[in-house]
């Protein structure tokens, strides 16, 4: 049975000028570009440490929700349900920013039968501490992704180009909660649990989209041949379910925006980023430069990781042996520099811990184009 066609989407990127700044969102609403009550999701980078105790995510979350409450008619409880996915850590040249997705009145959007951006939002069932890193979490995430596809009006998994999630990780309280109920957890290392939560979620996305079969428990976070090309998974202490923002293309929805994707094969694979941009509908010369984008690229969204072999293009690096600066920060700065050199804009979304997200040592790239 075909879905009802969802409303077209407006998507804009705004800078975050200080740690609790949401003026970019307020200005878009005041200018009539978007309506506060139509904001579906925000995906952004904040300037903290990117770790378990990165409070800049909470500051940004509060600032953006306060604007949505002040400038719209939704209650605080309704605004609390809007997915705001914050990835902490703008290492190197990365710049704090937010990408805002909002539905628009179809009468205000350009009509076209070409594929145009659609967004589906869903929440999974509650993910218990003992589910993290195990098949139960894979299944719960997969069910949520299928629900988000329905909301976006997408039937064919090939039309899904980016699935951004936020899932719970393990804190000491969560570990103790599981133990109090006679359950064990996959790890008691809270920082490692961030990586494991991300990787388990990615497998759930891959299962839902038919990229892989349901994995066995022992393959989770271990069998690096299993991955999703469209998963971008983030985790934090803010929630106890998988929050899913699924972005794809639908014909007939109208609007100006289109999304495409590809993968980076390794940390230096600028061609993988260009391929994602081409996939979004921007025509480019054979060897493109940032000037060729001509303002048509809204943003790119990448996941990255230090190659577990400790090598890139045959050359040894020390990221995984460095006891002074965690590899999360080093690879994010590296890939952020590569991405910014492609886009010509340091406000790009680069997130770390990419196990099962794109090929090992690389990661998925999604690109959103403004074709208006």
Any overview of this molecule?
The chain is of the alpha+beta class and 372 residues long. It is 27% helix and 26% strand. It has eight helices and 14 strands. It has a four-stranded mixed sheet, covered by helices on one side. It has a four-stranded mixed sheet with strand order 5-8-6-7, covered by helices on one side. It has a four-stranded mixed sheet with strand order 9-14-10-13, covered by helices on one side. α1 (23-30) runs parallel beside α2 and α4 packs across α6. The chain is globular and about 55 Å long.
Overview in brief:
This protein has 372 residues and is α+β, with helices and mostly antiparallel strands. It contains eight helices and 14 strands. A four-stranded mixed sheet has the order 1-4-2-3, with helices on one face.
Question: What tags apply to this protein structure?
Answer:
372 residues; alpha+beta; 4-stranded mixed sheet; 14 strands
Global shape? globular
What's the oligomerization state? single chain
Structural class, judged by helices and strands?
alpha+beta
The number of helical segments is: 8
Strand/helix succession? EHEHHEEEHEHHEEEHEEEHEE
